[in-house]
Design the sequence.
């Protein structure tokens, strides 16, 4: 198992550790209600170092990645990010990939659900300056309505000019660090790619600023439920349960004009089918138990869906879930039945996302 480089820092904060796909992660730091409050009212710092991280030579890497990833990487401009995915040869989802063009190189951040070496072996197969930096760099994320002000305190006011899906390089104690604006909670969100040589000092500096703004720390449990609330795809939740990228709603990450990318034959074939399912967000009836992974959803005794991601939203005081639905029933604002122990007709309601109104979009964050 790949260990967290900053484990001692997180342990000192009282973190509880777990693992994702054989890689160590912080699951909780504080009470989850407190973590959620901090994320939605100020900002929360989370460690995403379990993600895979790679460097490529800029020109050769761009040509190669365009033949592998689903998106059009050749259109990627300097200072910007492309959000795409890597599929297996059978078309099933393997990893969400953010590709950044900066500093005469490409940086690829992969939220990889493969426990084997498929992603690494696929991405290293081109002759394009590939380097696996997963064990050499820390990846931290900061999300919340005050995240933008916190990052400006760290790197300067020019970060206010960074649009969504952009990247910039900054020096920290003589080392290059990279800032990505690619949050997935609905509020302002940033990721920091920091070399291990200054990671401890960087963590202390950033943590001090976060606390001074009334923010806090969170683990993956809170980070992931905030993605569900905000309507963002989570490779480590629904991505682990639903193999088909089209059923995951990732069509927008695909360039269908491309002749080929990894898994494209099967994905193009699936696109012609009329039987594709769709993801639907659900909230439980008041007083009903929490959703469970694999729980069946019914209409008039007929199963129409199955829960593939779930959690308790402290921001809404609601039990939420994502379920993969028969497309004929994949609509918002309808009631469905749950098969609950000791109950014949537990109810849930389909709702549209985002489920929360992000403060980053209101006067509260100005």
Sequence:
């Amino acid at each position: 198992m790949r260990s967290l480089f900053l484990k001692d820092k997180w342990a000192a904060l009282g973190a509880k550790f777990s693992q994702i796909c054989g890689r160590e992660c912080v699951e909780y730091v504080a009470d989850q209600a407190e973590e959620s409050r901090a994320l939605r009212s100020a900002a929360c710092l989370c460690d995403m170092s379990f993600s895979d991280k790679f460097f490529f030579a800029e020109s050769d890497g761009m040509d190669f990645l365009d033949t592998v990833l689903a998106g059009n990487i050749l259109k990627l401009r300097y200072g910007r990010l492309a959000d795409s995915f890597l599929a297996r040869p059978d078309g099933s989802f393997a990893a969400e990939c953010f590709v950044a063009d900066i500093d005469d190189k490409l940086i690829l951040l992969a939220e990889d659900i493969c426990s084997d070496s498929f992603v690494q072996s696929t991405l290293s197969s081109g002759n394009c300056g590939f380097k696996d930096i997963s064990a050499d760099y820390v990846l931290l994320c900061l999300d919340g309505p005050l995240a933008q002000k916190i990052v400006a305190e760290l790197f300067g006011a020019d970060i206010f000019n960074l649009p969504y899906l952009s990247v910039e390089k900054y020096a920290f104690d003589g080392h290059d660090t990279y800032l990505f604006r690619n949050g997935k909670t609905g509020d302002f969100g940033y990721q920091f790619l920091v070399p291990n040589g200054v990671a401890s000092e960087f963590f202390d500096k950033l943590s001090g600023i976060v606390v001074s703004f009334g923010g806090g720390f969170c683990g993956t449990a809170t980070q992931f439920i905030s993605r569900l609330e905000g309507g963002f795809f989570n490779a480590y939740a629904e991505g682990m349960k639903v193999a088909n990228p089209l059923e995951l709603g990732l069509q927008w990450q695909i360039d269908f004009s491309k002749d080929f990318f990894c898994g494209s034959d099967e994905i193009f074939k699936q696109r012609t089918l009329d039987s594709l399912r769709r993801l639907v967000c659900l909230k439980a009836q008041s007083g009903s138990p929490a959703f469970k992974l694999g729980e069946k959803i019914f209409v008039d005794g007929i199963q129409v869906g199955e829960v593939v991601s779930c959690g308790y939203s402290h921001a809404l005081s609601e039990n939420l879930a994502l379920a993969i639905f028969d497309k004929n029933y994949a609509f918002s604002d309808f009631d469905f039945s749950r098969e609950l122990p000791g109950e014949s007709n537990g109810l849930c309601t389909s709702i549209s996302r985002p489920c929360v109104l992000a403060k980053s979009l209101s006067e509260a964050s100005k």
About this structure: The chain has a mean pLDDT of 95. The chain has two domains: 7-228, 277-366. The first strand starts at residue 16 and ends at 20. Residues 7-228 form a domain with the Gyrase A; domain 2 fold (CATH 3.30.1360.120).
